[in-house]
From TrEMBL:
SUPFAM superfamilies: FMN-linked oxidoreductases. It comes from Pseudidiomarina planktonica. It comes from the Bacteria. This is 2,4-dienoyl-CoA reductase. One of its GO terms (cellular component) is cytosol. Pfam families: Oxidored_FMN. Residues 13-339 form the NADH:flavin oxidoreductase/NADH oxidase N-terminal domain. GO terms for molecular function: FMN binding; oxidoreductase activity. Gene3D superfamilies: Aldolase class I (3.20.20.70). The lineage of its organism: Bacteria, Pseudomonadati, Pseudomonadota, Gammaproteobacteria, Alteromonadales. InterPro entries: Aldolase_TIM, OxRdtase_FMN_N, Oye-like. Coiled coil: none annotated.
Length: 369
């Protein structure tokens, strides 16, 4: 057992980074930026708490990339211009000073847009809206907006916007970016046959549906120095559809992972309800197991706790482990498990009525022990 413990808590080389340990703060939307999309002091305190709490790597909340249709939520941070970029710099510095690395998650909301201060028309891969209802946790919105299917000009615009945002993330001092291709946002919609029924070059089999993402990884890779990480987050499920499966199943997913590797991705971050859920059609491996077997640097996520991290650490000896709900409940999760201290469960009241940092802090004040 001691060997495993040393492995999880000791320094590790991962992608282009040297990390203090294998624990990662998973990306969490906190809708706490200024209304103009600038990150602020409250967010700096928030991220610094996790760095001081022992997480080796932090992945930020999904951040929008342009002043068109990428913003998804009110008070979501952006990196769409110089002021927004500069607003991230003190956060990066405070996290670095506390000894952790920090990666920016880049997110285009696509059809899942709930609020956007530049437009009321989301762009998507088709007219298809997400299943279910918008998330109250991220602001009031009763119904999904009508979606405009992207035309060729918009494919170029989105590609350029992503690449420009990657460069700005590099300028702001981040250690890398994570392209958000999970949970039903635009890049995930390209892959999903629920959304993507296009008959042109961007639709059809997995090769066509993955084309934009593979082009994006290559373009992003060549736009910044080699020591800057370009990762991607992948899921089948979305925030409102926990059953979706790629029709190409395990074989198709394995193909995608191999192509991403060829395209030069620094890491793949899988997310599912549970790290080891055998969720792929016609397969007996989880998303994480496929990535591990192909041999791409891997971040696992989904249901990791104080009770299973050792077992998972053994099963995925080279992977990082990303935690969301447990981290939110215990910003010092890493210190706690290391010291054998009590680890709490998340009380969802902390995120009510909206999942912002202000409500979290109020909850903490009321529930201080
Ligand atoms: C409040 C909240 C906000 C989230 N926001 C994001 C996000 O911005 N980007 C993302 O990829 N996942 C987001 N997620 C999903 C988490 O990163 C994670 O995949 C999920 O909670 C499962 O991991 P867990 O079992 O450790 O909580 C969010 C989750 C929560 C609870």
């Amino acid at each position: 057992m001691t060997g495993i413990l040393e492995n999880e808590f000791s320094t590790t080389e991962f992608a282009e980074m040297k990390l203090d340990n294998r624990f990662v703060l998973a990306p969490m939307t906190r809708v706490s930026a200024d209304p103009d999309g600038c990150a602020n002091e409250l967010m700096a305190d928030h991220y610094e708490r996790y760095a001081k709490g022992g997480f080796g790597l932090l992945i930020t909340e999904g951040t929008y990339l342009d002043k068109d249709a990428s913003q998804g939520y009110a008070n979501q941070p952006g990196i769409a211009d110089v002021p927004q970029t500069e607003a991230w710099e003190p956060i990066v510095k405070r996290v670095h000073d506390a000894g952790a690395k920090i990666i920016l998650q880049l997110m285009h909301a696509g059809a899942q847009m709930q609020y956007n201060r530049f437009t009321e028309t989301p762009i998507g891969v088709s007219e298809q809206q997400p299943k279910g209802n918008p998330l109250g946790l991220y602001g009031d919105q009763e119904n999904w907006y009508d979606v405009k299917p992207m035309d060729e000009h918009e494919f170029d615009q989105v590609m350029n916007a992503f690449v420009a945002a990657v460069k700005r993330a590099h300028e702001a001092g981040f250690d890398g970016v994570e392209l958000h291709a999970a949970n039903g946002y635009l890049l995930n919609e390209f892959l999903s046959t629920h959304f993507n029924d296009r008959k042109d070059q961007w639709g059809g089999g997995i090769e066509e549906r993955a084309k934009f993402i593979l082009m994006l990884v290559k373009a992003a890779r060549s736009s910044v120095p080699d020591d800057f990480s370009i990762g991607i987050r992948l899921s089948q499920i979305t925030i409102t559809d926990s059953d979706y499966q790629l029709p190409e199943g395990e074989e198709g997913f394995e193909w995608l992972v191999k192509e991403l590797k060829k395209a030069g991705v620094s890491f793949i971050h899988t997310t599912d309800n549970d790290v080891n859920r055998k969720s792929l059609k016609d397969g007996d491996r989880s998303l994480a197991q496929v990535v591990r077997d192909v041999g791409v640097p891997l971040i696992i996520n989904g249901g990791i706790t104080e009770d299973n991290y050792e077992e998972l650490g053994e099963e995925y000896p080279d992977a990082l482990m990303a935690l969301a709900k447990k981290a939110l409940a215990n910003p010092d999760f890493v210190k706690r498990v290391k010291g054998n201290d009590e680890v709490k469960d998340l009380d969802f009241e902390m995120l009510q009525p909206v999942a912002n940092i202000e409500n979290e802090l109020k909850w903490r004040e009321q529930n201080a022990d």
